[in-house]
TrEMBL record:
Pfam family, one: FYVE
The protein's name: WD repeat and FYVE domain-containing protein 1
Organism: Rhinopomastus cyanomelas
SMART domains noted in UniProt: FYVE, WD40
Protein role: Positively regulates TLR3- and TLR4-mediated signaling pathways by bridging the interaction between TLR3 or TLR4 and TICAM1. Promotes TLR3/4 ligand-induced activation of transcription factors IRF3 and NF-kappa-B, as well as the production of IFN-beta and inflammatory cytokines.
WD repeat segments: 20-51, 195-228, 238-279, 362-395
FYVE-type domain boundaries: 281-352
Keywords: Endosome, Metal-binding, Phosphoprotein, Repeat, WD repeat, Zinc, Zinc-finger
Gene of this entry: Wdfy1
Superkingdom, natural source: Eukaryota
GO molecular function: zinc ion binding
Single GO cellular component term: early endosome
The organism's taxonomic lineage, starting at the top: Eukaryota, Metazoa, Chordata, Craniata, Vertebrata
Length: 410
């Protein structure tokens, strides 16, 4: 199914349904209200707003609430209609929204952090609100009592969070480029493992509990898929964005990954294919093709009376090569390289034309994107960012999820 959807999507693109404007500063978070023609936004202008679609087709704010500090993160639990808003001052405020989405009542304030809240999740099963912040910690608090249950500190800002509600495992990405897997208990936690693979700060995470896959986006413009529950240590690299990856969402039904970058790029990756792992880069003092020394290999340069060369790496085989032995560039989507990268000349010859067939589609959001969320049951996506604009997209032409779920495309 996913293969057919992907081939159709090559010539299709997301449809912009609505533009919502009104925030005076950057919009930190925007969430679609399930089964409703509405959305919730939180911004750096200290406002949280609920927008409902009117008969005119325009979205108008039914709730406009001003906070004490700029809003930095948000979580919404639709069944209980509870909203949790994180702020720059480190506090999280809980509100209860009315059934008609025209009134919002304050519930309580959680002193979760000493600095900007970067991510929030709410677990109804345990009645915990879990959050990360720029005070370099993850905290979990009891929503019944409002009391702090536990904290764990990292060596750098905690930037994003995903949580497995059944096993109480938390994934925390940080500014050092590391992802920490923790097991949260009532008043303590244990570090299970750390995942290292990105060369830049972690900007977004997505956990799929069904296939037990973790996806991470980073400021190094790349995405990594970590197979947590399957083959041990298996990782897949995806490179197609040209700016930092700000948000990701995996659609388990169609085996597709949607990602957005700061330059407005929207990518849809086909994950229902047999992909290859990118090789580890090999270390060598000389070119592994022609054996010419690299510029730090003083002894061989002296012995051979030759000038040292600059070191490069072939993205397909991982070998350390010189520029003369890697004169070609090629895309290699099966390994995640959607744009042309350096390959050695012998690997270039081994890549066939069909190997260069793209396994992703790329689209232009035409605005800065710092946050994205999806309602996969309807095939809708909302994006927002520093340009103060919120956009609502029909993604069914490129992901097909509403068709698969039994909804008709708009």
């Amino acid at each position: 199914m996913a293969a057919e959807i992907h081939s159709r999507a090559q010539s299709r693109r997301p449809v912009l349904l609505s533009k919502v404007e009104g925030h005076q500063e950057a919009v930190s978070a925007a969430l679609l209200i399930p089964r409703e023609d509405g959305l919730i936004t939180a911004g750096c202008d200290r406002t949280i707003r609920v927008w409902l679609k009117r008969d005119s087709g325009q979205y108008w704010p039914s709730i406009y609430h001003t906070m004490a500090s700029p809003c930095s993160a948000m979580a919404y639990h639709h069944d209980s209609r509870r909203i949790f808003v994180g702020q720059d001052n480190g506090a999280i405020m809980e509100f209860l929204i009315s059934e008609d989405f025209n009134k919002m009542n304050f519930v309580k304030t959680y002193p979760a952090h000493q600095n900007r809240v970067s991510a929030i999740t709410f677990c109804l099963m345990s009645e915990w609100v879990i959050s990360t912040g720029h005070d370099k910690c993850i905290s979990w608090m009891c929503t019944r009592s409002g009391s702090m249950l536990g904290r764990h500190y990292f060596t750098s800002w905690a930037s994003c969070l995903q949580y497995d509600h059944e096993t109480h495992h938390a994934f925390v990405g940080d500014y050092s480029g590391q992802i920490t897997l923790l097991k949260l208990e009532q008043n303590t936690c244990s570090v299970i493992t750390t995942l290292k693979g990105h060369e830049g700060s972690i900007t977004s995470l997505w956990w799929d509990p069904v296939q037990r896959l973790l996806f991470s986006g980073a400021s190094d413009h790349s995405i990594i898929m970590w197979d947590i529950g399957g083959r041990k240590g298996r990782t897949l690299l995806l490179q197609g964005h040209h700016d930092k990856v700000q948000a990701i969402c995996y659609i388990q039904l169609t085996r597709q990954l949607v990602s957005c970058s700061a330059d407005g790029g929207i990518a849809v990756w086909n994950m229902d294919v047999s992909r290859e792992e990118a090789p580890q880069w090999l270390e060598s003092d000389s070119c592994q093709k022609c054996e010419q020394p690299f510029f730090w290999n003083i002894k061989q340069m002296w012995d051979t009376k030759t000038l040292g060369l600059r070191q490069h790496h072939c993205r397909k085989c991982g070998q350390a090569v010189c520029g003369k032995c890697s004169t070609k560039r090629s895309s290699y989507p099966i390994m995640g390289f959607e744009y042309q990268v350096r390959v050695c000349d012998s690997c270039f010859e081994s890549i066939k034309d069909e190997d260069r067939t793209s396994l992703a589609t790329f689209h232009e959001g035409k605005h800065n994107i710092s946050h994205m969320s999806m309602d996969t049951s309807r095939g809708l996506m909302v994006t927002c960012g520093n340009d103060r604009i919120v956009k609502i997209w029909d993604m069914t032409p490129v992901v097909g999820c509403s068709l698969a779920a039994g909804f008709s495309s708009r």
